[in-house]
Design brief:
heterodimer; A: 411 residues; mainly alpha; ABC transporter involved in vitamin B12 uptake, BtuC; 2 domains; two-stranded antiparallel ribbon; 17 helices; B: alpha/beta; Rossmann fold; 6-stranded mixed beta sheet; 42% helix; 19% strand
Chain lengths: 411, 385
């Protein structure tokens, strides 16, 4: 066990991932499906995870600077509209930039209200969430109704940026494809999932993924990041060291809005929708907040949270015969056993019992039902978020001053 | 202390999720449900129905006040189609009309109806969301007739269900009959023997299931062995399904990858994702697959880049319904309760734009004639299809 802990982080995560794939491979065999480890499943996981990831990273910037940003949803909505408008008029890349700008505008409103005027963070966030759909409805009625194929609730088709396929691995010699087709237990499944990630990878997705290490570097390896985090932990301490706390908070919340805006631009891009349609964010800004908490206010944790959401959602959506959703039930049951063992070793009796009971229920359902109803796959991602929050809340550590009002000179 | 803050954050999050859910439903119910319950075609694309009379110098003292659904004119579907019917009544019957659009959340519907009733003997409300307000306003304005699009205007608390009043009419459509025809078209055109159906929201009073039932029945009438894959995006009361082109796209791609080559949607705004998926899959696989539109002639309303993937559309002619109810008022034959606009009055139908179904038009017309004559009875429940 000690030897495992001495491994570098990437190696440990690779082992966890391999273990997960092994579990999926075994379990799907019982249902005679290969959808759990199909290349299209890992692609769907990325597609559906990215808006959550970007919203979560947005929330990270704001909360690390001490501002709770419940307005992510509204900023995301602004991102969808401006992203579509920009892409239609100035090309796909400009669409992404304008989406960021639109979200940042929402962030600026939140910043002015919470930082300069000391409005309660939750109330200001709710205000942004109410303001954004009204503003985009107005903008659509003024602008999109004049476009061919546009109307008061939707835009014409939105162009997207390019894709890349990793050569050798997934094209040309297509090594992963060879392994996948060889149909060797477990190895073909790993190859299939990996090939999905390496094939037709959207450049936006790539950028979103690169933003994870970039955010970690920016917040934990630079002077800017240290100062920003001080504003979220002990702003008075920062103030005494001569940090302009207001400025850092402003910058953080505007960046936060920018991330949410990029998430919105991703949703309208052909990667997901290929069109702006009123109401299409369907609450994903809030799920981003959940990913932020689930990820313990850390970029890598948020990535895991986003993928944990995207995987069941994407698999369930494409699962027309219900076999994969049925398999996922058993995966849940086994994962809960793991949670029970983990909780038991920490001496948490209530959590252990709860996990065992939930696991038993999932296993029973798996055995009794031939197939699971559609609504189960719809709610599964949210159930996972809830379960994780229930069991791991005690290990979470939010920024100490998040949500607390700050007034200069009151320390 | 930290824990308490965290609890507060969690509480706030949960509260927001709940609020968002409520808000979402509300919005969907007000703006999207009519779209799902289906939009209507631009009147210009179809020949006028056979019921048209020769335009003899029209004179009438009937005036019409029409109240749009949220979104108002310019939505390229439901409301615009209703307006087209109104305009036609203006030119062919000589009625004068006024129009009004409700505010963003539709909270002033009742006032607008009252305003319209004050000066017009005929009031038309576009969308089933007017049901409650129209019933109340009609009771207080016995001198005016009220027509509500997409609602039967029956009081189901009575046994047997009775119209809300002598002056209240409902304008409903035989969507299953139109869906039968596009289902037959899909089966005739399919080369793989496998087709798909994407519904927006399951369990809205069986509304979308009607489309599915007709579609399956039509496909099976052509080819009893055909495989039909059905999938709903969400279930009521989650109305996101009418608003989620991204989810529709993934579902459609899974259907195409599974061997279906034609997919029909009854999912309002989500349908854009279906045509996007048809294009994506056709280009990636080299084999052409199709989507079928709903409500309006989607060949004419989708983006030019994807219109070549719209095989046909199931048309719901709100313009016909609006015109016919005004005509009934002018003629003095207007009746209380629901009037169903079906194939026999061209209240529903299929679109021919693009010319992709020209080769099978004779068979489709044959089915249409059989449905009108009653030889074929189209089911409204998928289980019976």
């Amino acid at each position: 066990m000690r030897r495992f802990a001495e491994l570098p982080a990437w190696a440990r995560w690779a082992l966890y991932a391999a273990l997960g794939v092994l579990l999926l491979t075994i379990v799907q065999g019982f249902d005679d499906t290969n959808r759990l480890t199909a290349a299209s499943s890992s692609q769907a996981m990325l597609r559906w995870g990215m808006p959550i990831l970007l919203a979560g990273l947005g929330g990270l910037f704001a909360e690390r600077a001490g501002i709770v940003n419940i307005g992510l949803e509204g900023m995301m909505i602004l991102g969808t509209w401006f992203g579509a408008w920009g892409a239609l008029n100035y090309g796909a890349w400009a669409g992404l930039l304008l989406g960021i700008a639109g979200g940042a505008l929402g962030g600026l409103i939140h910043a002015i209200a919470t930082i300069s005027f000391g409005v309660d963070h939750v109330i200001s966030g709710v205000a942004v969430n109410i303001l954004a759909p009204g503003a985009t409805r107005f903008l659509s009625s003024e602008i999109f109704t004049g476009y061919d194929g546009g109307s008061i609730t939707q835009s014409p088709r939105v162009p997207g940026v390019g894709h890349i396929t990793v050569p050798v691995l997934a094209s040309g010699p297509d090594l992963l494809g060879d392994v996948m087709r060889a149909d060797v237990f477990f190895f073909s499944d790993v190859a299939g999932l990996t090939r999905g990630l390496a094939t037709q990878l959207s450049l936006v997705t790539l950028i979103a993924l690169l933003l994870v290490p970039f955010t970690a570097w920016l917040l934990w390896r630079t002077r800017f990041g240290l100062r920003l985090r001080v504003c979220g932990e002990r702003p008075e301490a920062g103030e005494s060291q001569g940090i302009n706390v207001y400025r850092y908070k402003y910058v953080a919340v505007v960046i936060s809005g920018g991330f949410a805006g990029l998430a919105g631009a991703f949703i309208v891009s052909p990667e997901l929708s290929g069109i702006y349609l009123e109401g299409q964010t369907t609450g994903r800004g809030f799920i981003g907040l959940a990913a932020l908490i689930l990820g313990n206010w850390r970029p890598s944790g948020i990535l895991i949270g986003a993928l944990l959401f995207g995987y069941p959602f994407g698999v369930g959506l494409r699962d027309l015969d219900g076999a994969a959703s049925h398999s996922l039930l058993l995966v849940n049951a086994i994962a809960l056993v793991g949670v029970a063992v983990w909780a038991h070793r920490r001496g948490q009796r209530t959590s252990t019992i709860l996990a065992v009971v939930l696991s038993g229920l999932a296993a029973m359902w798996y055995l009794v039902a031939e197939e699971v109803p559609d609504w189960w796959t719809d709610i599964l991602p949210y159930v996972i978020v809830l379960v994780v929050l229930v069991f791991f809340t005690q290990r979470l550590r939010p920024p100490a001053a998040a949500g607390r009002p700050y007034r200069k000179g009151e320390a | 202390m930290k824990n308490r803050k965290l609890l507060f954050a969690l509480f706030a999050l949960v509260a927001m999720l709940v609020l968002a859910a409520c808000g979402g439903d509300d919005e969907a119910a007000t703006t999207e449900a009519p779209a799902a319950s289906t939009e209507a075609p631009p009147a210009s694309t179809e020949a006028p129905p056979a019921t048209t009379e020769a335009p003899a110098a029209p004179t009438t003292d009937v005036t019409v006040g029409l109240v749009f659904d949220i979104g108002g004119r310019g939505d390229q579907s439901f409301n615009d189609s209703a307006y087209a019917g109104l305009e036609r009544a203006g030119t062919e019957l000589g009625v004068k009309f006024t129009e009004a659009s409700p505010n963003d959340d539709g909270s002033n519907r009742a006032e607008l109806l009252q305003l319209a009733a004050d000066s017009n003997p005929m009031v038309i409300a576009v969308g089933f969301l007017f049901e409650g307000d129209a019933a109340k306003t009609a009771a207080a304005n016995a001198g005016s007739n009220f027509g509500v699009v997409d609602s039967a205007m029956l009081d189901f608390t009575k046994d047997p269900p009775a119209p809300y009043g002598d002056n209240v009419s409902g304008l409903v459509f035989a969507e299953h009959q139109g869906s039968f025809l596009v289902g037959a078209a899909a089966a005739l055109k399919s080369t793989t023997g496998s087709i798909g159906f994407i519904g927006g929201v399951k369990g809205v009073g069986g509304l979308i299931e009607k489309f599915e039932a007709g579609y399956i029945a039509g496909a099976k009438a052509v080819n009893p062995d055909i495989k039909v894959v059905s999938e709903y995006i969400t279930e009521a009361p989650d109305f996101d399904g009418f608003n989620a082109p991204d989810r529709a796209k993934d579902i459609a791609l899974a259907m195409y990858e599974g061997g279906a080559d034609i997919v029909y949607h009854a999912a309002g705004g989500s349908g854009a994702g279906l045509f996007e998926a048809a294009k994506t899959h056709s280009e990636a696989s080299g084999t052409k697959v199709w989507g079928i539109g709903v409500d309006s002639d989607q060949y004419n309303t989708v983006d030019p880049a994807v219109k070549d993937y719209v095989l046909t559309s199931m048309l719901k002619r709100v313009d016909v319904a609006v015109f016919e109810i005004i005509k009934a008022k002018v003629d003095g034959t207007i009746a209380a309760g629901p009037t169903t606009y079906d194939l026999s009055v061209d209240g529903v139908g299929y679109a021919t734009s693009g010319g992709f179904v020209d080769d099978i038009a004779p068979q489709l017309e044959e089915f249409k004639a059989k449905i009108i004559s009653g030889e074929i009875e189209v089911p409204t429940d998928p289980a019976a299809a």
